[in-house]
Amino acid sequence: MNESETHRQHAIDYVEFAVTDLTEAKRFYGEAFGWQFTDYGPEYAGIRSPHGESAPEVGGLRQDTQVRAGGPLVVLFSTDLEGSVQAVTEAGGTVVNGPYDFPGGRRFHFTDPSGNELAVWAEA
Q1: Distances from the Cα of 6 to the Cαs of 9, 97, 114, in angstroms?
Q2: How many CA atoms lie within 13 A of 37 on its CB side?
Q3: Of 24, 40, 59, 81, which cross-links 47 as Cys (Cβ 3.0–4.6 Å)?
Q4: Which positions ≥6 away from 72 have C-beta within 8 Å?
């Protein structure tokens, strides 16, 4: 199965946790659950399951100064990022960040009418 077959349009694709100490978070989740990580610099680590080096990323740990209310960031996948931006805004959501480039693709964050923040990403 190649990379594009692992992602489905507008499905929950990735869960991102804000952490105040990336090193400590990696230690904790590694010890508690056997999670493995892909480091993307000093402020981000991708989460892989404990099932080996070839396990796909299912989430990330993002260094931040505080953990925001509402918990982890749910990230959806899109095959058409600009189309997803349009769909979100037409449905009454508000784009609060992006679209912007990041390792592996582009993404944007939005809030729904209740104020929940989610993100949508697309491959580069």
Answers
A1: 10, 25, 30
A2: 22
A3: 59
A4: 15, 16, 17, 18, 59
Q: How far apart are CA 32 and CA 100, in angstroms?
A: 33
Residues whose CB falls within 8 Å of the CB of residue 100, separated by 6 or more in sequence, listed in order: 106, 107, 108
What is the Rg, in whole angstroms, of the alpha carbon atoms belonging to the chain?
A: 15
List alpha helices for 34-101, DSSP H: 81-90
pLDDT value for 1:
34
123: tokens are 């491959």
Report whether 19 contacts 61 (CB < 8 A). yes
pTM: 0.73
pLDDT in tens, 74-117: 999 999 999 999 999 999 999 999 999 998 899 999 999 888 89
